Amino acid sequence: xxxxxxxxxxxxxxxxNLDKEQLLLSFEEALEQAYERNVEPGKDIEVQVDPxxxxxxxxxxxxxxxxxxxxxxxxxxxxxxxxxxxxxxGMEIEFPVDPExxxxxxxxxxxxxxxxxxxxxxxxxxxxxxxxxAGEILTAVVSRVDNKRNVFVDLGRGEAxxxxxxxxxxxxxxxxMRLKVYVVKVELSNRGPSILVSRAAPELLEYLMRQEIPxxxxxxxxxxxxxxxxxxxxxxxxxxxNPNVDPxxxxxxxxxxxxxxxxxxxxxxxxxxxxxxxxxxxxxRNALSPAKVGNIDLDSESGEARVMVAxxxxxxxxxxxxxxxxxxxxxxGFKIDLIASESVSDLDAAIQAAAARVDEETVTTPDSRxxxxxxxxxxxxxxxxxxxETES
Length: 392
Prior knowledge:
By secondary structure, the chain is α+β, with helices and mostly antiparallel strands.
């Protein structure tokens, strides 16, 4: 052991960003374990390394007792008094050992233990770095992909894993590729810190919208709810805190420029922006867009909603593979049951009925447009004949 070794130890601490005192302490513990295991088994060993010149001192520690039960760790007062007349029962006495007695096995064991201690220290630093960062969006670099399709990304100070279920379907991950990831959770296991990240989390979509849309960033437009099926389609419910700001238009941008900037990061995932409403019925109606639906019966206790849908709107309300209604349910928090209906008792249906009555009439007066308008809004709901009288 010499000064060069201490310099190397200090350099290692700097490169690995480790505490020098803790690293030296770990080295001393490694020497103690190696010496006790291979040279002086069963004895209490203490190793001290001078942090300045690297000199090593190995000591065997024995306790002074009245009656010896373990000769490797104890000695009588009479035996101790020969070495130190002032010694008393209960005190400890140190016996220096020649460090040259280290065997090759002891040196190898020391190397292994030191390596393990360094790894443990590095893992502890990584865990401390990221343990409070769950829920954040970080920039990562793809470092490798294993045969189970798990993607490992470098976060700068640590490595995180992104399993297939947290990936965007169809997205290809190449080594060296930079991407945004959401930190799902950080745990400490026997193998070290485990950092789980995601590209499929709804939080990533929220983050990108805050980055690309100033009104969302300054909270003029509020994101009330997000439902996402990564790589395919998402629905975002928005509302405005400023009556002069259209929340949907603000999110979409001129010719869709803002929402396109968001979707370009998400493999061109389709993002529907809908208006949030405090009324659950209207919120569900908006969430099912672009389909037009009729009456909605809610059961707040069970969280279920029965929605009447015209036959020609049913497939649109369901969506491809049930995606539209599934996202609407996630967005609103209601279990949505679509009921097919021949007609819809909604404003659209009323207008269509009135328009049909106008078509059946023969309008011959010069003011025929005025007559059609009056017919549209003067029809009585109890008029079974479907005809409207007009003044001549």
